[in-house]
């Protein structure tokens, strides 16, 4: 088996560490929102340890906090978490794990571990990135959930501190460095402006759909305008 270059290993570990820290920190927002929704610290911690998929956890406490039943909350969380099964099909070929390691791999197959692993150039660094990102997020997410749930009462309404927007901010922080091209930055900025403008005046879900439409239109118009400019210059 060929030895993985140290540069590739360091790059994979650096990516895993940055993703783990950025994702783990907004576990504080989950912990604070969970206790505000009526869960105890132990219940919030159990969700982070056993469910361990951020989007599903936020959906669960959102429904419970709005007065919904546990069955409805669990069903919604399950639907959102179903995407992780698709990630499993992506990472399984290069992980090649069996037994208890397979169960552990399934538990930490999340957005972040999949993204880091699939960004690598060979199976060995892909495995390295997967495990370090998955386990790193697991440890920090659970630690920050505990912090958020313990200090949640002292903070008061988490929305005063912007904790309800922490997940979106963290994802934007992870995404923005990849928007190196000017076209990608313009598309992202246009979508954000539209979503923010529509959020106060439209039903939930509409701003996201509108932002997606804007992204498609702007992304299509920019190359078209560039093509016309090239023709005019020649």
UniProtKB/TrEMBL annotation:
> Topology in the membrane?
Multi-pass membrane protein
Q: Which keywords are on file for this protein?
A: Cell membrane, Membrane, Transmembrane, Transmembrane helix, Transport
Q: Where in the cell is it found?
A: Cell membrane
Record flagged with keyword Transport: yes
Residue ranges of the TM segments: 12-38, 58-80, 130-155, 161-179, 186-218
Q: Report if keyword Ligase is assigned.
A: no
Provide the protein name: AzlC family ABC transporter permease
């Amino acid at each position: 088996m060929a030895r993985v270059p140290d540069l590739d290993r360091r790059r994979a570990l650096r990516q895993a560490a940055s993703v783990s820290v950025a994702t783990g920190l907004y576990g504080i927002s989950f912990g604070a929102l969970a206790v505000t929704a009526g869960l105890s610290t132990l219940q919030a911690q159990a969700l982070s340890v056993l469910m361990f998929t951020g989007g599903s956890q936020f959906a669960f406490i959102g429904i419970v906090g709005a007065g919904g039943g546990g069955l409805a909350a669990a069903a919604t969380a399950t639907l959102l978490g179903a995407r992780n099964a698709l990630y499993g099909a992506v990472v399984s070929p290069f992980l090649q794990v069996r037994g208890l390691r397979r169960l552990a791999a399934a538990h930490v197959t999340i957005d972040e571990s999949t993204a880091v692993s699939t960004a690598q150039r060979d199976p060995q660094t892909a495995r390295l990135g997967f495990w370090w990102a998955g386990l790193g997020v697991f440890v920090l997410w659970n630690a920050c959930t505990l912090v958020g749930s313990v200090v949640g009462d002292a903070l008061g309404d988490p929305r005063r501190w912007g904790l309800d927007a922490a997940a979106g901010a963290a994802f934007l922080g992870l995404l923005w460095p990849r928007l190196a091209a000017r076209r990608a930055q313009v598309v992202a900025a246009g979508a954000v402006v539209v979503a923010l403008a529509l959020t106060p005046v439209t039903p939930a879900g509409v701003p996201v759909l509108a932002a997606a439409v804007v992204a498609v239109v702007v992304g299509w118009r920019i190359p078209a305008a560039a093509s016309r400019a090239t023709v005019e210059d020649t």
